[in-house]
Amino acid sequence: MSRIARNAEGAGPFTTRLTWSLSDGGTAVWESRPARKRGLLTVRAAGESKSHSRRADSGSVARLGRLNAIAAGAFTVGGCLFASGAAVGQFGTGGLTGAWIYFAGGLFFNTGGYVSLLQAVNAPRQDGGTGALAARRWRWWSYEPGRIDWLSTFLLFAGTLVFGINLLSSLLQGLSVQQVNRLVWAPDMVGCILFLVSGHLALAEVCHGRPGIRAHDLGWWIVAVNQLGSALFLVAALADFTRPATGSVVNLDIANWGTLTGALCFAVGGVLQFFERP
Q: How far apart are CA 229 and CA 252, in angstroms?
């Protein structure tokens, strides 16, 4: 059965929504995030005015559901641990206690980032003129920079790994000011930038182009809340720079509160993601 693409939409070189004609006269619409997160395709039969959703096969749907639950849980726990680490730094004794809490939270962020990438790698794809999503063989890795969902989740995962360097270095004792800025602050900044770029791509994916407001779209709320968290993380990182002349950070309160509120955004995004299931 053949298909004829009628309209392709997206951001730059990326296609995020594709509409095509089916051989029976109907139409099918594939959208990147619903297909990846929920295993859904929108189909309108010939002569009908209303569309209905068509799911992928049961195996793909079950796989997507498991991956989504793991990623949602990891970001929820990781966000809560990061917020706890910031609270310890702001209201408690700080020191290694807060650093170890951050490190534990970073492991959950690593897990959430990699599982999000796995979801993009193993998402079902549109299948010819059948108006269905085809299952894919399970893979632990792929290289597909031409897909916006893959690139967004890959940058997210890379950001969590860079944050890991920052968190591991923060456990070291006796570092000079230059070493703190190089081993702790610099990876923190790089991780924040990767998170922001990943979030921008995710917004472009759900908006099919220029980012805007889609208040009735759960996927948009998840991405928007996470992007707000990334921006707060960046503010916190800028405030956490250690001045070489004095050996003190720019503003410890902003660093702690920015991290705390940003982490809570990711925790909220994780909770919302539980509802974005197949």
A: 18
141, burial (CB in 10 Å: exposed 0-12, middle 13-18, buried 19+): exposed
Q: What is the pLDDT of residues 4-27, one digit of tens each?
A: 556 888 888 998 988 888 777 778
Q: What is the pLDDT of residues 82-93, one digit of tens each?
A: 999 999 999 986
Six-digit token string for 134: 């085809």
Residue type at 190? V
Mean pLDDT, to the nearest integer, of 149-170? 96
Strands 125-127 and 132-134: antiparallel
Give the distance, in angstroms, between the CA of residue 211 and the centroid of all CA atoms in the same chain: 15
Give the span between the Cα atoms of 144 and 175, in whole angstroms.
40
Of 153, 155, 154, 166, the closest CA to residue 85 belongs to 166
Q: How confident is the model at residue 1 (pLDDT cuts 50, 70, 90)?
A: very low
Tell me the Cα Rg of the chain. 21
**What tokens appear for 10 in the block?**
């997206």
Q: What are phi and psi of 272, to 5 degrees?
A: -60, -35
